[in-house]
Amino acid sequence: MKKYLLLITFFCFSISGCSSLIVMSESAYYSDDDLNLDIPAGSDNGIPPKPIQKENAHYPSDARKQGITGRVEVKMLVLKDGSVKRAKIAKSTNLIFNESALRAAMKWTFIPATENDKPINAWVIVPFLFSLDN
Description:
TolA/TonB C-terminal domain, mainly beta, 6-stranded mixed β-sheet, 10% helix, 11 strands, 134 residues, single chain
């Protein structure tokens, strides 16, 4: 049986570039408006996973005290039931935010990806932005 994995990258730009921003606790944020939900080439009839429950990332107190901001991109394996099986750091501007982003990512739930109308496991990348502007 073939296993299909979709790699969907979610993008969010600076706070001024997000028209309808969902502010997450402690100034870590994520925006639905900037999602890139294109199916990779070769994935006919595929629909990417869609987040239905998002967990807020906590802004680490040490980072806040030091005035540190950053961005962490978390790669998540979304299973056929919509749960997150694995989360790992795809890219990070500062290690201080990694643990918080990973903890939040593991609590997300999704409508699973589908291919030919059947649920499939899929990888997604979600950015968590940490800003002191709020």
